[in-house]
Amino acid sequence: MKLPGHDAIARQAGEHLVTHRVVLPRKVVDRPIRQVLKRLIMALVVLVATAMVVYADHDGYHDNADGAVDLLDAFYYATVTLSTTGYGDITPVSDGARLANIFVITPLRVLFLIILVGTTLEVLTERTREEWRLNRWRSTLRDHTVVIGFGTKGRSAIRTVCATGLKKEQVVVVDPSSKVIDAANAEGYAGVIGDATRSDVLKRAEVHRARQIIVAPQRDDTSVLVTLTARQLNRSAKIVAAVREEENVPLLKQSGADAVITSSGAAGRLLGLSVLSPAAGMVMEDLIQQGSGLDLVERPVVRAEVGRKPRETDDLVVSVIRGHRVLGYDDPSVGTLQLTDRLITIVRATPAIQVTPDTRPLRDE
Questions:
Q1: Angle between helices 106-116 and 118-140 (to 10 degrees)
Q2: Of 300, 292, 281, whose CA–CA distance to 345 is shortest?
Q3: What predicted TM-score, i.e. pTM, was given to this entire model?
Q4: Of the chain's two ends, which shows fewer C-beta atoms within 10 Å, N or C?
Q5: What would the pLDDT profile of 272-314 be if each residue is shown by its tens digit?
C-alpha cells in the first residue's frame, strides 16, 4: 500500500485551502470593440431620431438667440437634452412640442442614457446575473455526472460517456486548478474549483444528487479520500475510480468504489497484447473508444430474446449479467436468457466507418 501518513495527508489538505467556487460555461459574446461600436451606432440613431422629432415641430420651439429653430438647432437641442445638460436656451413653448417632449423626447433620453452606460450597468449586474444562473443551475441539476480531476483520464472518461448520449449540461468537473476548469468550461462543462477531498467542495458540485461519479485525480491517496467523502455524501451513486498501483485497488473498493481501474496496469496489459498480436491490440483499442467502430454496450434482455441462448441473439453477446454475477456467454449456468438479465454485447457504432484491423495496415514482419 503506497499511501502517505496522516501528517502528509493533513499537509496536502492544508495546501489546497483555496477559495472554491462554481464556474459555469459562458455564452459566446461579441468582442468589446464590436460591442462599443454597436452602442455608439444605437446612440447616434437615437440622437438623429430625437433631432428629427424636434425639427418636425420646430415652430413649437423658441430659441433665445434668434427665435427660430433650424435643423442645426434641432440637433443641438437633441444633444443637450439627451445628455441631460439642458442649457435652456431652446425651449418648447407650444402644447404639441411639450407633448412631444413628454411622450417622445423623454423616453428617447432614457434610452440614450441606457445605451451609453450599458457597459457600466452590465458590470454592475454581472454578479447578480451570475448568482441567478448559479441558483437556477443548482435547482435543475439532477442525476448528473461528477468528474473529479480533468486530466487525461478524466477528460477521456467523460468524452466516452458523452459519446453514448450524455449531455454536457449534465456534467460537473471538480479540479483545484482554475486553468483546468477554464479548459472544462471551453468544452461546455460546468466546473467547481477546489479540493475534492473536502465535503463542502463536493457539495457545491451537488454530489449528493449525482447518479455517477468518476474519480480520476493524479494521486492514489487522493482517490481514496475523494471516494470516501463522495460515498459518505451519496450512498446510491455509481462511483468509478482510477488508481496507478494495483495494490491500492482493494482499498478503493473498501472506500466505496463500485469499480476500480488500474491505469498503469491496463496500459501495460494493452501493450503486452499489442506485442503478442498487433491486430488484437487494435481491436481492444477500438472497443474502448466509444462512439466509433465497434463498441461494448450493456443492455437489457428484450422479450423476444427470453428463452434463447446467448449465441442465438442478433447481437454478439460477450457476457450475461444475472443479479450481481457477470457470467461468460459460454458459462453452463447461464442456460437460457431471462427477462431480468442484462447483456454485454459488441455492436457497430458507426456502420459507415470501418476501423477494424482489416482496414489498418499492419507492419510486415
A1: 70
A2: 300
A3: 0.57
A4: C
A5: 877 778 888 788 777 777 766 778 888 899 898 898 888 888 8
User: Residue 222 is which amino acid?
Assistant: T
Percentage helix, strand, coil, to 5, in the chain?
50, 15, 30
Given a contact cutoff of 8 angstroms between Cβ atoms, the answer to whether 356 and 283 are in contact is yes
**Spatial CA neighbour of 233 closest among 256, 214, 265:** 256
Beta-ladder partners of 289: none
CA distance 333 to 140: 44
Contacts of residue 89, defined as CB under 8 A and 6 or more positions apart, other chains included, come to: 63, 64, 65
Distance separating alpha carbons of residues 297 and 197, to the nearest angstrom:
32
CA–CA distance, 99 with 76 (Å, rounded to integer): 19
d(C-alpha 362, C-alpha 365), whole Å: 9
Q: Tens digits of per-residue pLDDT, 69-94?
A: 888 888 877 877 777 766 677 777 77
Total residues found in the chain within this entry: 365
Of 83, 100, 88, 101, the C-alpha closest to 62 is: 88
Q: Kindly compute the dihedral angle of the four CA atoms of residues 19, 25, 261, 160, in this order, to the nearest 10 degrees.
A: 180
